[in-house]
Amino acid sequence: MTITGVRTRLWRSGVLEKEDFPFADISDYVCQDDCLVWIGLRSPDAEVLNGLAEELSLDPLAVEDAIAHRERPKASHYDSHTFLSAYALELDHETSELKQTQVSAFVLPHAMVSVHTEDWFDIDAVLRRWDQDSELIKLGSKTLAYHLLDYLVDGHFDVIQSLDDEIEALEDVLFDDSPNAAQKNHLQRRTFALRKALVQARRVILPMREVLNTMVRRDSVMPEPLRPYFEDLYDHVLRASEWTESLRDMISSVFETNLSLADARLNTIMKKLTSWAAIIAIPTAVTGFYGQNVPYPGFGQHWGFATSSAIMVGLVVSLYVLFKKKEWL
């Protein structure tokens, strides 16, 4: 009987023997010491997962975590298996929206069950890694878990690199001498979108340190030849975490700098408006004074008009030169 969304593989002594064999044959292979079985479930229904859990003695709490949404990345050891929960990430470069899907795995002595829900998660890429590393397959189910986690961490790095590039691209717009309204609006929206994506990525990347630490430090049955691979992956996770922290500082700096530049531009505009208002006030004051209905020096004389004009021009030019020196204009 073929069940939708279920894929299977069988290795015997490290050599791939069968693929997509009947679901009912799983129990016949997992009890054999020279066999290694992978069962891949995509959006499994409760009947399939519960049936498999009963057949392989999977812990009910772990089964519940595998199908629950928004579980925190973690690694838990049970009597018969180790349960892993992590996230695959993908960044939409057009909208800066971060897609994420939970990927869970039950690691048994001679089998691994993986569970994911989204179609965009490329499980075939994980299978290709298994095919390319047939020597490690001989070490058992921990090898399958290693390549799955390694693929997820590589995806984290791709997302972080994309976020880094996007944040650097914001600097070109941020320090534009004369940004228009559309550029300002784009910068604000892009900054907010990247900040949101970074927060979401940080929530699933930072806990990966605990996942790998549990696998490396607390797994007493870890094959020794495989331990250096997990330790190297742990170093990658630490680097991804540190990179995420630095990006958080960068996006915060961009956000704060944008506010500071907006204030600076506003101050510049206010200085210009104030300067021009002061310049315009001079002729207004002079013409207002000479427009009084009382006699004044030069009243009704040509030299009086010339004097008032000279006063206006002189004071206006003086203020203009003064404001230019102070870079207010």
Automatic annotation (TrEMBL):
Topological type in the membrane: Multi-pass membrane protein
Location (main, coarse): membrane
Subcellular localization(s) per the UniProt record: Cell membrane
Segments passing through the bilayer: 273-291, 303-323
Keywords: Cell membrane, Membrane, Transmembrane, Transmembrane helix, Transport
Annotated Pfam families: CorA
InterPro entries: CorA_cytoplasmic_dom (IPR045861), CorA_TM1_TM2 (IPR045863), MgTranspt_CorA/ZnTranspt_ZntB (IPR002523)
Official protein name in the record: Magnesium transporter CorA family protein
